[in-house]
Amino acid sequence: MRTTLTGIVAAAAISTVGVLEAANRDYISIVGSSTVYPFATVVAERFGKLTEFKTPKIESTGSGGGMKLFCKGVGVEHPDVTNASRRMKTSEFEQCRNNGVTDIVEVPIGYDGIVLANSKRAPRFELTRRDIFLALAKQVPNPAGGEKLVANPYKLWSEVNSALPATKIEVLGPPPTSGTRDAFNELAIEGGCNTFAWLKAMKKKDSKAYKSVCRSVREDGAYVEAGENDNLIVQKLSANSNALGVFGFGFLDQNADLVQGSTVDGSAPTFDAIADGEYVISRPLYFYVKKAHVGKIPGIEEYLKEFTSEGAWGEEGYLADKGMIPLADDERRTVKNAVIQLNALTSLAQH
Amino acid sequence: MSNADEQAAVVDIVTAGLKRRYAAERRFRLFGLLSVVLGFVFLFALFASIISTGYPAFQSTYVQLDIDFDPAILDISASPGSEELSAANYAGLVKHSLRELFPAVKKRRERRSLYQLVSIGAEYELRNRLLTAPSFIGRKEALWLPANDDLDTFMKGGIDRQLPQENRRLSDQQLTWIDALLEAGRIEKRFNTVFFTSGDSREPELAGIKGALLGSFYTLIVTLVLSFPIGIAAAIYLEEFASRSRWTDVIEININNLAAVPSIVFGLLGLAVFINVFDLPRSAPLVGGLVLTLMTLPTIIIASRAALKSVPPSIREAALGVGASRMQMVTHHVLPLALPGMLTGTIIGMARALGESAPLLMIGMVAFIVDVPQSITEPATALPVQIYLWSDSPERAFTEKTSAAIIVLLVFLVVMNSLAVYLRKRFEKRW
Fold first, then answer.
1. N or C: which end of chain B has fewer CB within 10 A?
2. Are residues A264 and A124 part of one domain?
3. Nearest Cβ partner of B112 from A5, A16, A316?
């Protein structure tokens, strides 16, 4: 009995090795941000169903994790594309170069709004970025006045801003590992921080101290890390009408019967307001393509074409249906031209 | 004091304490019973919530449309080649038939929201139909095509008409169109075969678990082929051949420890060894199976050793006594008697492997994979991973798919565990 089993195992092992040697990837491998994942997957699916190419494989690894995999090197075992809910960092660009990934095509694809929402059973919150900063930052300017920082003393929204209801500050949001959290800190909290002139001035003098004040979230229980699953946050909000939640616009769009988005600086998070830049808490989404793989892995150019077609990322494209906010018309044209020609990034200078 | 007096004193003490002891006994049993009841309540609540949210997923909504396979609408020549056919305008066919149904809808925006009632899957289906049977060109057919997830949710009662328009996924106008379609008998709910025959999709109405099921199947095959023989060989050697020494003690402690190691650790190990060192493909069931083998081996070894231990020594002595070699003693006598227990252990180990998702995260099996895997080296996901991915999707209609996938997973787990119980009952010998 044992000899036959050994035989089977040996045969299996040999046949796998044979398979592996012949393996030459015939599908596109994509990694990266969980925020871009719902959009990239839609494109990938249509691409796979309506062309002769295989459907790309998309792993949701987070922006940082995706960059790490992407920059590991050139070759079939490394991914061809990485999605990111922020721009590539200089350190990542350097890492890529050091590993021989020199020609990278950057594709900005659109925007994602970050909303603060609460249950429909409670009145809608009308917030400013300053309110958000005061309610959620770890340290805030002394309420008694002066240019001194104190540990965040606010317990009720009404203490932050008398126009707000006298309910407990309780915000459910993503953990620090999430790209949504990074963007929220940068756009909402830092945005509110900058409304204090002396804090803004600190940026030039002591940028480290500035960051630790303007991008840190309080840890005394007012901000609750509710995990990466946005559906869970929506469920918790509908059960607890006093809490606010932080998540992506796509989830607000799908759950409009349960939750409502708070206005920020006078603008409600609607599709149009985010697209116009009127709603300020929104971030750009990107993906990056390894140029060395174009032509080696079948379908990359066609995938790029599909992604940048008006039917996909246009104002009435299917990505907009899924909640992605498109780029402006002329931006789309410029990006598309650059992408079709596969213009590689030379540096990460602002464009 | 006499003996009789002493006895009477003892009896007094006993009778005095009797009531208290009976009460304590009753309390003790009650606690036990309560624990069982509590366990059942939790289990029942879990099942009830999963089944009640999941069962609608086994049905899906179809819309009947009169599709006119007119080459002019398809934007192709009268006798097209397959390349021309695969790139034809299938969306146009669906849109055309919807426009014919509702000729009053003229504005661009309105038309767009009308087209949204039918799933993109309709296009795929029409395309497949024409690619397999080009003879349809020029004909007019009434076809049942998949509805969009919002319409599907509405048909299952998931969208409340009473809510103000901006709070629901369907507009008032879309509702009047749906009413008209219902009136004409053009909307129907059917058994959801798509759920069992297709891979993952970002459109809830097109998403299926076949890819995940096959991924789990391939992964478990690899796990079984590796862990069963290795586990049993290790157990036999440790139990029957190895002499007790410091070394076997160390090995035993290690095996017991490994059985308690969190599964994510095995995933990290798999990433470091199988993918980074051996260059095996990411996301493949082969690597998943290898990782889960590491995870299930200790379980199988421990169960197999217990099964071997339960074979009485007299059997071994008798076999050796009539002149069998030790190998013959093991293969002819001990192993057949211990096998039911070993199989039980293996099945329980496999069931655990089936429900595992954390180690697969590290090796890239948490991915969007539409094509159903055909071999152990093609990218695949597994059932628990599919559940995780769906639970994190924004579309509301994925909630029921998530629960439905959990039901399928539970069915498999129940079947596997019942099989283990059956094997034990049927073949186990007691001495």
1. N
2. yes
3. A316
